Amino acid sequence: MKAVAARVSRAAVRVNGATVGEIGTGLLVLLGVHRDDPVDAAPRMARKLYELRILDGERSCAETGAPLLVVSQFTLYGDTRKGRRPSWSTAAPPERARTVVDAVVRALRERGAEVATGVFGAAMAVESVNDGPFTVIVET
Fold it and tell me: pTM for the full model?
């Protein structure tokens, strides 16, 4: 699993012009699932994201209560080493990815996190105001 976590002052995701997820100061998480990622890796990714110390004062969502906006992003596994068109062969198939993303969101909520999400598989417009900017890649 791979996530791009960005510290934001606000972020939102829209589907067909309607806001489906929105946060203030917190983390925008673009989450990609590899075809070999087991569902039981979800709690580990959730812990890493929730305890990631990149908020103001090197604090985490766990410490501050800041929310997370989690958006599924299969394109994180796009392979561009050959040619000009990415290959998606290492990304998990949609139903498998949905299961793992849902498990990460569930594990975050079980830890007490406030979590907003996009809509899996939808054409989403993601808007964010990066704070810093401060963006890191988190992998399991």
Answer: 0.96
Chain segment 81-117, per-residue pLDDT in tens? 999 999 999 999 999 999 999 999 999 999 999 999 9
Residue-by-residue DSSP string for 41-64 = GHHHHHHHHHT---BTTTB-HHHH
Active site residue 74: yes
* Domains observed in the chain: 2-80+87-139 (3.50.80.10)
Active site annotation includes 80: no
Exactly one of 19, 25, 74, 90 is catalytic; name it.
74
- Each residue's pLDDT tens digit, 20-39: 999 999 999 999 999 999 99
User: Given its phi and psi angles, is residue 69 left (phi above 0), alpha (psi -120 to 50 degrees) or beta?
Assistant: beta
Question: Residue 17 burial (CB < 10 Å; 0-12/13-18/19+)?
Answer: exposed
Identify whether 64 is a catalytic site residue: no
Q: What is the CA radius of gyration of the chain?
A: 14
- In which residue are the tokens 């979800």 written? 42
